[in-house]
Amino acid sequence: MPRHPSYAPSVSGMSSSLYSALAERLASRPGEVYPLHVGDTWMEPPEGCRMEDFRVAEHPGMHRYAPVQGMPGLLEAIVERVRAKTGVATERSQVLVTTGATGALGAIIGGLVAPGEEVLILAPYWPLISGIVTAFHGRPVPVPFLDCEGPEALVAAVRERLTERSVALYLNTPNNPSGRVLPRGWVEALAELARREGLWLLSDEVYEDYVYEGEHTYARALAPERTLSSYSFSKAYGMAGNRCGYVVGPEEAVAQLRKVSTHSFYSAPTAAQLAGERVLRGPGDAWVARASARYRDTGTKAAARLGVPPPQGSTFLFLDVSAHLDEGGLAGLLERCVERNLLVAPGPSFGPFPHHIRLCFTCSPPEVVLRGVEVLAEILRG
Amino acid sequence: MPRHPSYAPSVSGMSSSLYSALAERLASRPGEVYPLHVGDTWMEPPEGCRMEDFRVAEHPGMHRYAPVQGMPGLLEAIVERVRAKTGVATERSQVLVTTGATGALGAIIGGLVAPGEEVLILAPYWPLISGIVTAFHGRPVPVPFLDCEGPEALVAAVRERLTERSVALYLNTPNNPSGRVLPRGWVEALAELARREGLWLLSDEVYEDYVYEGEHTYARALAPERTLSSYSFSKAYGMAGNRCGYVVGPEEAVAQLRKVSTHSFYSAPTAAQLAGERVLRGPGDAWVARASARYRDTGTKAAARLGVPPPQGSTFLFLDVSAHLDEGGLAGLLERCVERNLLVAPGPSFGPFPHHIRLCFTCSPPEVVLRGVEVLAEILRG
C-alpha cells in the first residue's frame, strides 16, 4: 500500500474558514439578512474608476501582465500620495503593488520571517494576520492591548512576550476589530521599542482615511529604516474585489518582498492598477469624504443603540458580550443571531477574546445595518 | 547601535528578477523592439469577456470580495469543463480559483511542502516554479529530461534524485520552455512512480489547449488521489493581467491549499472571475481555435528559420546555442541581442541549461516576432 502524501504541518494545523458554516446557513434564511460579520463596504467604487471604465480601445494590452513591482503610473501616484500624507522621503523602489493588503502582508511575512521565528501581534488584530504568519511557517504571538492604560503599559506588554526568536511587531491602526485609533504617543513608543530591539515594524494602515476621532499616525515617519506600511484600495475606495494594495518601506526590504510576491501571485491585476491610479489622481478624496461621513454616522448610531462608545476609526465595533452569554457561551449567542438572520464575527478570530463579537457597520446600506443592530440589541437584552 | 532586522534566509538567497536590467535597456532602444523573452500573448481576450463588458448596473457588488474558494458560477463552469476534458469525477470542493497558475502553485507548495522538504522538478521548467518552492522554504531539485529517450530513462532520472525529503514531483506539459508535449506513456510512468513513492504529482497544464503535435495527457486521470492540476485563464484566453487560474485535486488537499491562498492573496479578483465564467461558457473555444492556429503557424515558421524542429505545443522555442557562443558566453550573446533590439530568456532560468535560450513566439504580433527571429538568426550565424 503506497504512503499517502502529507501536508505542511503548520498549514494542516490551521483551522479552516471561521464563519463558512454559519454564513451558508445565513444565506439560506428567508427574508432580509444581516451579514455584519463581513468586513466590506456596500458602496460601489467611484464612477469612472470601475472595471467598465477601462476599455481595450484606450488601453491596448490591459489584459496582459503588469510589471511585478507595479505599473509605473500607479507607482508614481502612490509615491506622490505617500510623500504628501507622511512627509517621508519615498522613491518608487520603496513601493510594491500587491493583491490587496493581504498580498502585501503575505509578501512581508514571507520575505522577513524565517520558519519558526515569532511575530508579535497587537491584539485584537485583523484576523488574517495570525494565519499569514502561520501559513508562512512563522509563530504568531498575540499581545493584548485593549486594557493597557498608556504607552508604558503597552511597551511592557510587548516586552513580556519578546524572545530571541522575535523578528517583527505588527500593529493595525485604525484598528480592525476594535475601532480604536492608537494615539501618537503609543505608536512612538512602539517605534522606539522596535528600534531598540532590532524588530521590523509592520504597520497595517488600511483604514488610514477612516478616522472619526483623534488622528492617524504614520509609523514610517517614526522609524523609516524598519517600517513596512501596508495600504489597500479595497478599504479606501470600495475596491476589495479588485485585489490591489501596496506596501511602502526600505528599498532593500521591498526588494526581498518582491521575490515573494512574484512567487505567490506574480503581479497585481492590470485593470485594478489602472483603476488605482485613476482613483488616486481623480475622485478618490471626494469619495472617501462622502464614505467617511456615512460610515461615521452609521457607526455612531450603532454604538449608541448597543450602549458602547462610538468608534474612533475603521468600520467595526468590538463588543464584550460576556454579560449576555448563557451556558451555550459564544457559540450559543452566534446561533441565536443566525436564527434571527444576523451574523457577527466571533472574538477568538481576533485574538484571545472568548467573550467578544465584532460587527461591521459598512457591509450593508446603513438602514439595513441599523436593523441588524436592532436585532442584536434585542438578542443581547435576552 | 540597534541591530538591523534581517530577512528570511531562503528568500534573501534568491536572485532577483532575471531580465529586468536587460528589459529596461530594451525599452529605451529606438525603433521596433522584439521582447521575445516575455511569456504572454499579443492577442486581446475575446470580445464580451473584457473588463469593459462587466458593468455595475448588471453586476452590483462586482468590486466586492469574492468567496475565497471562487464564485459559484465560475466553480460550476470549471467543474463541467474538467469533467468533459478529463473524464474524471470532479466536485466543486475539489476546485480552488487562484490568482493565475502562479497563485495556484504558490498555494500548492505552501500547503503541501514543509520547510526543508524537496520538490522534484522536471527540467527545463517554468521559471517561477523553482522560486516558488524556495520562497515557501522548500528545496527545488531539477531533473533534466530532454535527453531521456523513453519513460524508463525518465523514471530512472527521477529516482536518482529521490530522497527521504522528497514530497512532490512537478511536471509541465505542454512544456514551457521546450515546446515539448510529454507522450502519454511518460506521464503514466511518472504517475506510477508518484504512487509507488508516495509523492504528490503537481501537473502544470496551463498550455493544455495549445498542442500542435501529439495529444495532451491529463495527469489527474491517472492518479486522481495525488494529483494537483493547475490551469490558467492567462495562457488559455489572453487574460494574464486578470490574475485568474485554478487548481483541481483531492478535496482534502484543496482544503489545505485554500488556507494558503486565503492568507497570501485572499481571493481571485471578482471581475476576473466573471470574465472566466463568461469565456468558459461562451467564446472561449472559438478564441482558442483561432489563437492556436496562429500560434502554430508562427511557431513553425520561427523554428524553420532557426533550423530546429517545430514546437509540439506551448508558445516557446528552446534553443541550444552552444555552437554560437564566443568567449563572452551566454551573457555576451544576450548583449549582442539587446544591441539589435531583441531580448530572449537565458537558459539558466529554466534549470541547468547554461547554453540554451528561450523565445516566445506569441508575445508580439506574428510579423514582429518573425522579424525578431530574423535578427536572432543573423546573430547566431555570427
Automatic annotation (TrEMBL), chains A, B:
Keywords annotated in UniProt: Aminotransferase, Pyridoxal phosphate, Transferase
Pfam family, one: Aminotran_1_2
Gene Ontology molecular function, alphabetical: pyridoxal phosphate binding; transaminase activity
Domain of life: Bacteria
Cofactors (names): pyridoxal 5'-phosphate
Alphabetical list of InterPro entries matching this protein: Aminotransferase_I/II_large, AspAT/PAT-like, PyrdxlP-dep_Trfase, PyrdxlP-dep_Trfase_major
GO biological process terms held by the UniProt record: amino acid metabolic process
Domain Aminotransferase class I/classII large: 56-371
PANTHER family: ASPARTATE AMINOTRANSFERASE
Family: Belongs to the class-I pyridoxal-phosphate-dependent aminotransferase family.
Name of the protein: Aspartate aminotransferase
